[in-house]
Amino acid sequence: MLTFVTLGWGCNTIFAKVAVDQISPMMLVCLRWLTLLVLLLIFSHRQIVKDWPIIRQHLIYFALMGTIGFTLFNALYYAAAHTTSAINIGIIQGSMPVFVFIGSYLFLSARITVLQMLGAGVTLVGVIVVASKGELNLLESLAFNLGDLFILIACFLYAIYSVGLTRRPKIASYSLFTILAGFAFIASLPLLIIEIQYQGIQAPTVTGWIVVVLVTL
Asked: What's the predicted TM-score (pTM) here?
């Protein structure tokens, strides 16, 4: 399972680049969470009914988590793919564990060991080596732009989401993911409206729909 999740996470960068000119970023975010929400509801609606008394008490928490960890993260991530390279995305994304460590220390008073920081450093170096294919001289030619800033902010937001998960209400995982996906879809609608207003509607191509399916999975 862990291997599957890691592979899916890594492929997200590739899908983001493939989506360029095939489906607009906010359309992709909106369709992703709508599709996933429908699929999850098929399997989890009974569990949600069972967990609803607890869910109802923490709606603000779920709304914030779905918006920050799912909608805004994805929106910045997919928008960044239009203006930066996959190499840059991979390298900057490697900063996420550092943000998580900092957030855990500041908000959870978690103790960060030297070994953990060393592990985060090794991970970041590994991402750089893999992204540059071992040719570190390629890093000298990298140019950073607005897309890179988007990825950096996205990593920061996902770190907030990761820290926030430690305070999750005690409900089933299916219920948690379904509710978060629901709020993610709702939060994506204003972004889609803004995108349509300023850029017009970019209907998904065949490739665009394939990307929607893949990022949903």
From this structure: 0.81
